[in-house]
């Protein structure tokens, strides 16, 4: 429902939210907008983070941590931003009645309330993961808890500031927030929030790299482990872009709806990247375990690793060594009293003496004067009958 009309204005739905630049005509019907990028980016990253969270839960189903809570908060925030996608256009293409409506004001207020707690939970979830993996020495634990304290300092004041500057007084309409100008004060707090996010993301990225660099591991193994945590670099990139648009909104008056749309996209990316980083170690371990169990991947890996060995054996001495030749079975099939079940469902019975249960020893080229022992094996079969 549109806000009450100020005196002298006939229809706010025919007035743009911002005066257009010279030569530009407002377009309320089909303007250039960021609705599609907002929906696509939000949907794709929501699906990717959902896959990683599912893998995290599957790998550690008995352990409930902040990752699942962060995922729920992240999807709530993404849903709110997607609900505002129709405002993802230039301000002169937005009807003033739409921007000043109670629906828009409440959605913007709710998104701001969710922002601080959501970012706090998703970042602390990563640090608690570090606490589980790396907290062997006291300095490491102090460093991780220092990161948690930094997250609390940057993110937890945010909802308090939002309630102070973006909520109307009791009994007053939502449009008073805009008319009083109090909401603009929140824009000057936003850059501090953005810079703090960059510092936290850099800290989350550097901390495991420093810890792993001091471990006594093989260089290849160390690089593999570090590569798992390199996804945190995407969080730094998204935080930098989000901070840029916060600075633009705070210090460059003008196309605020377009700038807000850009900011919202990068905040969604920042949230989902944090979820992915928190799930990456568990998912990487799960993929490694499942790939080891896969018959196709194991066969392919053995072929790739053993191809040069086969070639070297074929090019070497091909004269077979004399001695014991065993059947090409392994495990239970290598035992002399093992018999394979065939589809004929015949009951195979073999009569042989206890002294002859060893494998037959034969030489590839019997020498003169050697003793060759042969064993006669008699075998009979009869059709299988149910109930016998």
UniProtKB/TrEMBL annotation:
<feature type="transmembrane region" description="Helical">
    <location>
        <begin position="107"/>
        <end position="130"/>
    </location>
</feature>
<feature type="transmembrane region" description="Helical">
    <location>
        <begin position="225"/>
        <end position="251"/>
    </location>
</feature>
<feature type="transmembrane region" description="Helical">
    <location>
        <begin position="263"/>
        <end position="287"/>
    </location>
</feature>
<dbReference type="InterPro" id="IPR052337">
    <property type="entry name" value="SAT4-like"/>
</dbReference>
<keyword id="KW-0812">Transmembrane</keyword>
<feature type="domain" description="Rhodopsin">
    <location>
        <begin position="65"/>
        <end position="288"/>
    </location>
</feature>
<feature type="transmembrane region" description="Helical">
    <location>
        <begin position="34"/>
        <end position="54"/>
    </location>
</feature>
<comment type="similarity">
    <text>Belongs to the SAT4 family.</text>
</comment>
<keyword id="KW-1133">Transmembrane helix</keyword>
<feature type="transmembrane region" description="Helical">
    <location>
        <begin position="186"/>
        <end position="213"/>
    </location>
</feature>
<feature type="transmembrane region" description="Helical">
    <location>
        <begin position="142"/>
        <end position="166"/>
    </location>
</feature>
<protein>
    <recommendedName>
        <fullName>Rhodopsin domain-containing protein</fullName>
    </recommendedName>
</protein>
<dbReference type="InterPro" id="IPR049326">
    <property type="entry name" value="Rhodopsin_dom_fungi"/>
</dbReference>
<keyword id="KW-0472">Membrane</keyword>
<dbReference type="GO" id="GO:0016020">
    <property type="term" value="C:membrane"/>
</dbReference>
<dbReference type="Pfam" id="PF20684">
    <property type="entry name" value="Fung_rhodopsin"/>
</dbReference>
<feature type="transmembrane region" description="Helical">
    <location>
        <begin position="66"/>
        <end position="87"/>
    </location>
</feature>
């Amino acid at each position: 429902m549109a806000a009450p009309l100020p005196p002298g204005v006939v229809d706010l739905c025919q007035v743009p939210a911002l005066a257009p630049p010279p030569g530009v005509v407002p377009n309320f019907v089909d303007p250039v907008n960021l609705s599609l990028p907002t929906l696509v980016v939000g949907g794709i990253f929501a699906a990717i983070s959902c896959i990683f969270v599912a893998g995290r839960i599957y790998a550690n189903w008995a352990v409930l941590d902040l990752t699942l809570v962060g995922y729920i908060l992240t999807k709530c925030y993404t849903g709110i931003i997607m609900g505002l996608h129709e405002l993802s256009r230039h301000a002169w293409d937005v009807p003033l009645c739409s921007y000043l409506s109670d629906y828009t004001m409440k959605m913007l207020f709710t998104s701001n309330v969710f922002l601080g707690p959501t970012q706090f939970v998703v970042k602390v979830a990563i640090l608690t993961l570090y606490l589980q993996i790396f907290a062997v020495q006291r300095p490491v634990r102090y460093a991780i808890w220092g990161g948690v304290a930094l997250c609390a300092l940057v993110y937890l004041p945010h909802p308090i500031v939002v309630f102070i500057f973006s909520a109307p007084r009791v009994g007053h309409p939502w449009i008073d927030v805009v008319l009083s100008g109090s909401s603009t004060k929140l824009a000057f707090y936003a850059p501090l929030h953005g810079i703090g996010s960059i510092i936290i993301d850099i800290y989350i990225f550097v901390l495991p790299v420093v810890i792993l660099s001091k471990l006594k591991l093989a260089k290849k193994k160390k690089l593999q482990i570090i590569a798992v945590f390199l996804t945190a670099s995407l969080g730094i990139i998204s935080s930098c872009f989000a901070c840029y648009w916060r600075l633009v909104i705070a210090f460059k008056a003008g196309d605020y709806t377009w700038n807000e749309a850009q900011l919202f996209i990068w905040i969604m990316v920042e949230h989902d990247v944090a979820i992915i980083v928190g799930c990456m170690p568990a998912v990487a371990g799960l993929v490694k375990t499942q790939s080891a169990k896969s018959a196709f991947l194991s066969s392919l890996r053995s072929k790739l690793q053993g191809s040069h060995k086969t070639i070297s054996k074929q090019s070497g001495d091909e004269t077979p060594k004399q001695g014991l030749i065993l059947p090409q079975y392994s495990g239970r099939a290598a035992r002399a009293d093992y018999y394979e079940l065939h589809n004929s469902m015949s009951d195979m019975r073999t009569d042989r003496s206890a002294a002859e249960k060893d494998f037959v020893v034969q030489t590839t080229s019997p020498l003169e004067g050697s003793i060759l022992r042969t064993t006669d094996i008699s075998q009979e079969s009869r059709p299988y009958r149910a109930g016998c």
